[in-house]
Amino acid sequence: MIHRSFAGLVACAFALLLGNPALAQSPAASPSISYTRDIQPIFTDKCVACHACNDAACQLNLGSAEGVQRGGSKMPVYQGERSTAVPTTRLFYDAIDEDGWRKKGFYSVLDNQGSQAALMAQMLELGHKTPLTPNAKVPDDIVLGLNRTNMCPAPEEFPAYAGAHPKEGMPLAVTGLSDQQYQTLQRWLAAGAPVDAAALQPTAVEAQQIADWEALLNRPGASEALAGRWLYEHLFLAHVHFEGGQAGHFFQWVRSRTPSGQPVDIIASRRPNDPPGTSFYYRLVPVKGVIVHKTHITYPMSPQKLARVKALFYAGDWQVTALPGYGPQRRANPFETFEAIPARARYQFMLDNAEYFVRTFIRGPVCRGQIATDVIRDNFWALFQDPEHDLYVTDARYRGQATPLLAMPGQIDDVGSVLSLWRAYRDKRNDYETLRRDAYADAPPPGWDTLWTGNDNALLSIFRHFDSASVNKGLIGDVPLTSWLFDYPLLERTYYQLAVNFDVFGNVSHQLQTRLYFDLIRNGAEVNFLRLMPADTRGAILSDWYQDGGKIKMWLDYDDIDTSTPSAVKLDEHHATRDFGLQLVQRTARLNAAPDPINRCTGAFCSRADHPEALRNAEQSLSRLVSRPAAGLKVINQLPEATLLRIQAPDGHREVYSLLRNRAHSNVAFLLGEAYRYQPGLDTLTLYPGVLTSYPNFMFNVAAGEVPEFVDALQAARDDKDAFERIVQRWGIRRSHPQFWDYFHDLSRYIEETQPVEAGVLDMNRYENL
Fold it and tell me: CB under 8 Å to 97, separation ≥6 — which residues?
């Protein structure tokens, strides 16, 4: 007892020296604080929602012990105007210990600076002593979201930061740590921030499948090596989960200097298709740290999938005698690099898990990017051309003519050559479009059998949320203005341009070339889809997609479309795209993973029939908000991009819905000036069960019995900001709500209950101050 009391006095005195009076009043520090048991759960609960991935403020990633010990950096990852590419700073890849990160400019947030407490301790203290007013708006002088400039003070700069920003401690502008969480973190920091960490260990079932997959990708022989390389380049972003594996266990592919059975020694190349510099092996390693939804792009593996891959890539009679090298030319044209592998095998592999591939470049791990996403519409459907109707797959002569034209820009990042490089690749792409148009004009007219319907990956819905986007299986929402039709050359180019070859640490030239080519990709997908429309309607449809200045872009950068060869799809010529969408829904009912009676209501009952009465009634009321232009529902102008509705039934069950704002544009053909192309009177809302974003912008919590009143209030609010304010006050969950984190994390719990493999911590960097 005497020793324990003395230890307590020492701890309190030490806390006072560090400037933490709350600690001096607390009980003695436990000698057994565990990072894994006590500290990481607090970070996961209150910090990871902002401090994860490349857009973590000051690159401080709090999802793992390694990220916490790495600390912060003043170098922003997202800096599109930089003239020179910067060194990569990928956690777990680009340095292996604290000394390595210090050499890269990272500073500790855990170490005391003489008599001054650790930077984290001071930031937490500043936040704890300036709490927000419960459920009130955050003061306007605190800049939030992507408009915030991260100041990233080093430890010695904290006093100046605190003086200039006295209300901007951590967690920033949100309901903070509980007293117990605060005291636990401060005790840990005062004790020197000791870290214990246990690496994830695969189960026996997982270990066997890992061994089988590694053996496959590392088979000896030139043909086998080429197939392994193609598979690795298509799976390096995947969070792999195994059939029969343990929930929460995910793995990812890396290149290692060491073979299976030895500790992994990662080759940290900038891109997965850069020269490895040495002999290497493909290895599967555990995904480290807290799973965050925005980077969690899952891919299933099983013995059946292994057999499928063997049949596609290793059972044919194709062979190579010499392997292609690495470098800019090979990156620019993967069709040449991998031309020995049958095109049918490559395309079929991508089709089997099309949702994964579209997520890699639409949702993607770049974490942030309005400049990238403003090239796409706010909502559209994605479809795929059946391999039997893809000339690149079926016609060797056509494939030989097309392959040289499919090279992509971005490998040469000389700033002075941007325009000349862009024009060269644009012209090459348009030559390909001419070749494709003429070749398909001689093919049988496209019909419903042109569309691939092999599994439920065949129908995808994409929603853009200004600076991010989401992909989900099925046909969600009302029939969109546009749809994309991918064939193999288009799907592969999109994946390589936006996932494999894209460098988030690159300079303005690389990023500009990538963005401009994505515009051509979108146009190509739209033109593919237009071939299904009646020939004499295609020009008018395209003109509607490219209104105003978009017609200049059509003239400058796009190839002419086919307006003469017929389509075998019979459609209402006055409403061809809508008729197509409605017929598609009917024809693909067995594949459609997202039946949608709410947005495409065709009768008196606009709800899911298999749900409890209270929720059916709620959905019936909520359906009054959807598929209506903003001209008739003006409150749309006050709603953010992605609002989450938490509807509480009388029996305690809750349902979560995404209420998505679909902004209308006159065109999406230009890099800048998006706001000038808005058509706010044509904006609509889509409501669908589930969490259809990684970045919630706001949340309402509404009792099921109050949903009719909630909907009435939204309809009546129109442009009245005071009326909308009253709605937020009554049902909204502001950043300052006392139970903010309970509601926010309940969204992740909902995903875990409904789609457990997809669950991860959501991001709150875009949570708005309504």
Answer: none
